[in-house]
């Protein structure tokens, strides 16, 4: 019978049969070499039923191929195994559902702790000598930085900026995995400065960032530069203020700071390739 007749027998669309032919599940018994018409035998309808039901049950194409020549006893055992697998997955989803709100609440508490830590460190910091900004400008910057954390806590959606900071002298939060940026093949150095005294000496040389790019700053600081947490957040805040948000782009900013081994100040700006 033709593909249309066979599709009518099986209660399916001819396109379904063409797909089964394409993936080698149910091949026609004959294909006319001149017209390309496919022809099927009535007995193939039983194979169609097997394929259709296995597919609806979530078996993969390769799994179905392995079961096609098996008897009904094997097929039923395969269905039993699939049911057990889906029941396990359902229990996992139910467990995730129960833990979801608890984890969301815990994460908000962690963000609140980080916010308070950042606020406290920035309030105790005087950026005038290091960054060359007055107290009024710094006050606005603190509000912007704290506002960033407030928006993360109060909203569930993503911000236009990914904003992260890290200082190896910060012992009040769990230390994240540290990545050796200078040897990371995914990043390239776009600016560096060594032996400087204050960031204000060279900030204007690297403060313009391209939209839609991921950047990372790395500071190695002399021991006389304390309060790395406030230092890092001030550096990030200045970059954010120099590069306003663009609704059509996202920019990732991160900053790492640690003590230098030679007593000198070093800085690198890196961009993801």
From TrEMBL:
UniProt KW keywords: Coiled coil, DNA-binding, Repressor, Transcription, Transcription regulation
SMART domains registered for this protein in UniProt: HTH_MERR (SM00422)
Coiled coil spans: 76-103
PROSITE patterns: HTH_MERR_2
Pfam entry (one): MerR_1
Record-annotated HTH merR-type domain positions: 1-70
Name recorded for this polypeptide: MerR family transcriptional regulator
Organism: Faecousia intestinalis
Lineage: Bacteria, Bacillati, Bacillota, Clostridia, Eubacteriales
């Amino acid at each position: 019978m033709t593909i249309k007749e066979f599709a009518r027998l099986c209660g399916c669309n001819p396109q379904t049969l063409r797909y089964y032919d394409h993936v080698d599940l149910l091949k026609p018994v004959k294909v006319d070499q001149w017209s390309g018409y496919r022809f099927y035998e009535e007995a193939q309808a039983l194979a169609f039923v097997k394929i259709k039901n296995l597919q609806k049950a979530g078996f993969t194409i390769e799994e179905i191929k392995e079961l096609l020549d098996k008897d009904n006893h094997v097929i039923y055992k395969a269905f039993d195994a699939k049911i057990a697998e889906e029941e396990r997955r359902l229990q996992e989803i139910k467990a995730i559902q129960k833990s979801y709100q608890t984890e969301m609440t815990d994460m908000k508490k962690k963000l609140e702790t980080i916010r308070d830590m950042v606020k406290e460190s920035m309030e105790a910091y005087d950026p005038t000598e290091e960054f060359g900004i007055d107290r009024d400008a710094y006050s606005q910057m603190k509000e912007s930085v704290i506002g960033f954390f407030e928006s993360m806590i109060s909203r569930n959606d993503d911000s236009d900026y990914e904003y992260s900071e890290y200082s190896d002298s910060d012992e009040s939060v769990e230390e994240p995995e540290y990545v050796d940026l200078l040897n990371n093949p995914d990043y390239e150095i776009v600016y560096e400065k060594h032996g400087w005294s204050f960031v204000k000496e060279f900030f204007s040389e690297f403060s313009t960032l391209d939209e839609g790019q991921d950047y990372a700053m790395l500071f190695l600081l002399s021991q006389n530069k304390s309060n790395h947490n406030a230092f890092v957040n001030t550096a990030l805040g200045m970059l954010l203020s120099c590069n306003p948000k663009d609704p059509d782009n996202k920019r990732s900013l991160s900053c790492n700071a640690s003590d230098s081994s030679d007593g000198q100040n070093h800085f690198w700006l890196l961009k993801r390739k």
